[in-house]
Amino acid sequence: MRTHVNSVGLLVRADPAFLFVYPDHIPRDCIDVLPQQPGIYIFRDEAATPIYIGKSVNIRQRVLSHLRTPEEAQMLARTRHIDFERTGGELGALLREAMLIREHQPVFNVKLRKQREMCSIALREHRPEIVFAKEVDFGRTDGLFGLFGTKKAAQETLKNLVGAANLCSVATGLEKGSPGRPCFARQIARCRGACIGEESAADHGARLHAALGHMLVRRWPYDGPIAIVEESDGLRQKQLVDNWCYLGTGKLKKKRAAARFDPAVYHILQRPLLAGGLAIELL
């Protein structure tokens, strides 16, 4: 690490931020107009393509923190302009960010990029089954547990849960069984015998349901779309949502496609919406 002389003349190791130089290829006018209110911001390259989309309760402060972060030098080197959009509050910023990232797939946004085969775990006749969003409406289906980006991730979670709760790998479909033959876990006293009839399918299913309980996917709690009303420094917005799917702001379109469950929106809204306290209008 490089060194520098501090204010009292001591030679010390330099913090990376000390060596940072403002990227002067980004026009200052697009920085100067950034507001200190909630909203989203977009870093664009020379072709005006979004390469990073973020959100904050203070747009100006958050963008300036990017400009002062040496670890983001690669993104800053490709940036030629920064846009912003104000929102009525933090939830609006979160929803708008998720929608734009899904739409544009910016190269420097990784966590919120589209999942290819979202799936969940359903219980069918006391047995777990992996179901996919393209076949099941997650927002309007009861008895779903966990949201996973791949089938492999769902299977691995189920495997770990079965081991931790002393469940039967045969009864859960993780191991092939044959009549009268105990599963491996039973042989080492880690299963109560559902594989050989010593534990009923109903009792085993109840224990499996309890073990999955903390991963329950909450059903959409309304009969149709709602508006979440937010206001910040004179900007009042209605964020339209249906079936854990963000529909945008303003007025609801009379003709629109059926709202499909969006895991990003679900993770943003599940707790605040079910906890109450938001300003809600039924549509």
Automatic annotation (TrEMBL):
UniProt domain GIY-YIG: residue ranges: 36-110
BP GO annotations: nucleotide-excision repair; SOS response
Spans traversing the lipid bilayer: none
Cellular component GO terms, alphabetical: excinuclease repair complex
UniProt keyword annotation of DNA damage present: yes
Gene3D superfamilies: GIY-YIG endonuclease (3.40.1440.10)
Domain of life, per lineage: Bacteria
Name of protein: Excinuclease cho
Organism the protein comes from: Pseudoduganella lutea
